[in-house]
């Protein structure tokens, strides 16, 4: 089954987002059908903020390190592509396709719809086998832009997107309307209950796993300070060493 096929199953594709090689490998071992990366996790681990176009080398480095070691498809969060130049973004996409990545995520943010559509079109032309998940931030950044959601997604669909992503979209009636009107696999950001919502084809965890991992680390550190017992069990040192061994 291809990565694209996973978006057409009887239930949504649950896509956990890894921030390093260890998290990616362990998530694949846990039985998830595909793995994504999270731009926030990748940048924060390097001491950088998310969404500032500062991490192409970090993102591409993680992709190179992961793609050959995963037993499942990998899709890479490219933020906005790190450039407004369609050719530059297409070059990154081609490199990822040649590495063996199955897909990419491209977000529009505050970018004009025509600019983002041109980028999607260039990527689709240059790397036709790559699953392009076209993200719009109309729900994420400003409630006043929500009426732009479907027009933007239709433009991205017509430019060659394989699927669409609307983080912040969670109302069942609005999900149904977007899915029906756009006609491409619809990706939403994980919230409990969305896995049973009609119209949802893919659910991404986004940065949630990384942020929960940080919270768990702080909680265990506090246990060391207070003498309390951790409520979670750590991945064992031998297990991790064995999994990372080449």
Automatic annotation (TrEMBL):
Gene3D superfamilies: Phosphoenolpyruvate-binding domains. Keywords: Lyase. CDD domains: ICL_PEPM (cd00377). GO terms for molecular function: lyase activity. Transmembrane segments: none annotated. SUPFAM superfamilies: Phosphoenolpyruvate/pyruvate domain (SSF51621). It comes from the Bacteria. This is 2-Methylisocitrate lyase, PEP mutase family. It comes from Actinokineospora alba. The lineage of its organism: Bacteria, Bacillati, Actinomycetota, Actinomycetes, Pseudonocardiales.
